[in-house]
Structures are given as structure tokens and as C-alpha cells.
Design goal:
The longest helix has 19 residues. By secondary structure, the protein is an all-alpha fold. It is 59% helix and 0% strand. It has 13 helices and no strands. The radius of gyration is 18 Å and the shape is elongated.
Length: 212
């Protein structure tokens, strides 16, 4: 608990801002963030931000995307990779929002994960970033960094999420996850963690044992 608190405090100094401010994806509405997050799988946020202005100009809401011609959507998002599967996911997502949620993005995680293309990670991104609600997305960076810090010994993303939820106050979970992701990208990288310049090195078990 103490290690988690200090981690949260120091990373907040390193990467200040709210979850919405820390999120690298560009969006104006919860629907746009949901679509962008689905598109971000297996590609970079920079790449997603290159295609979403065109996508959202053509399909600004769930109603318009639900009726979209898949071939036109595929052409717009082609550069994000896996564009056919992603097209099916975002059109299916939009159709589900129209059919079951009045075209609006639901706020409950239990509802979000019933939408095509949406798992717990994506649902937690939308909850924490778009709505300011508790949500702690767990990706490969969060898995790696939290294990190196000794915050958890678990490997399953859902179990790690629930374990970290016990350590991080609800209001700070989204920002904490994004800060850990930024730290994992910039410093605590998979192959060569830069322990010598890490703000957490003085209490990180892996910094003394050699990160793995």
C-alpha cells in the first residue's frame, strides 16, 4: 500500500494532469474516444490520431457509423492495421449503441463490455477518461511496471486490475494507469529499463535486482 501511494505521488509529479489530459488519443465525445480506443489496438496513438479526424468528420456519432459502408470505413482506417476486423468492431459497436443504449455510450463497465470490440481495458479507458469515473485500464505496460514494482505478482490483466484497485483510490485510478503507461514507455521499458534515471528506483525491487 505504501509503495503504491509513493508510486502514485511521484508519477503524478512526473506526469501531471487529469486522465483526460494525459490521454494521447484525440476526441471530443465519449463515442469518439470509444471508437479511437478500439482502433488503437496493435498500433500507436499517433497513427490513430491521423485517421480519426477523417473518420469522425464522416461519421460523428453512433447513428451515422452504424449505417456506414464498411468499404469506406476500411479505406479511412486502413493504415491502423487489421482494418477489416477493426471496421467490423467499430460499426458493430455503433450499431449496439444505437440498438441498446439510445446511441449513447453507457457508463457502467458491465454494459460497456457487452458492446462489440469493447473489453475491460477499453471500457475502463472510456469510464476514466471520457466520464471521469473510476477505471483502471491494464495494458502490457501496467502489467510489467506494477510487477517490477512489486505491487502485484499476478499476470492476468483482470486480476491485476482488481489488485491495483485495492491500492489506488477510485478517483485516481484512470490517471494512475495512464501515468504508469507513460512511465513504461519512457523509462521502465520492456528490454532496457532506465533504472538510473527512474524516479521510483530508490524503492523498486527490480532496480536492485536487475529489471526483468
Amino acid at each position: 500500500m505504501g509503495r503504491a501511494r509513493v508510486t502514485a505521488e511521484r508519477l503524478a509529479e512526473e506526469f501531471p494532469g487529469t486522465a483526460a489530459e494525459l490521454c494521447a488519443l484525440h476526441f471530443e465525445t465519449p463515442f469518439q474516444l470509444l471508437a479511437a480506443t478500439i482502433l488503437s489496438a496493435q498500433t500507436t496513438d499517433v497513427r490513430v490520431n491521423m485517421v480519426t479526424p477523417t473518420l469522425f468528420a464522416a461519421y460523428p456519432d453512433a447513428a451515422s457509423l452504424a449505417r456506414a459502408d464498411p468499404e469506406k470505413v476500411e479505406e479511412i482506417i486502413r493504415s491502423t492495421g487489421f482494418f477489416r476486423a477493426k471496421t467490423r468492431s467499430i460499426i458493430g459497436m455503433a450499431a449496439a449503441l444505437e440498438e441498446r443504449f439510445g446511441g449513447q455510450v453507457p457508463t457502467d463497465l458491465a454494459d460497456l463490455v457487452t458492446v462489440p470490440g469493447v473489453g475491460r481495458k477499453t471500457g475502463n479507458v472510456v469510464r476514466s477518461v471520457a466520464f471521469g469515473l473510476p477505471g483502471l485500464p491494464v495494458d502490457t505496460h501496467v502489467l510489467r511496471v506494477s510487477k517490477r514494482l512489486g505491487l502485484t505478482e499476478l499476470d492476468d490483466p483482470v486480476k491485476v486490475e482488481l489488485a491495483l484497485n485495492e491500492l489506488i483510490p477510485p478517483s485516481g485510478r484512470g490517471a494512475f494507469s495512464l501515468r504508469v503507461i507513460l512511465h513504461g514507455r519512457a523509462t521502465c521499458t520492456a528490454r532496457r529499463p532506465a533504472c538510473s534515471r527512474c524516479v521510483l528506483a530508490d524503492f523498486c525491487p527490480s532496480a536492485f535486482l536487475g529489471a526483468s
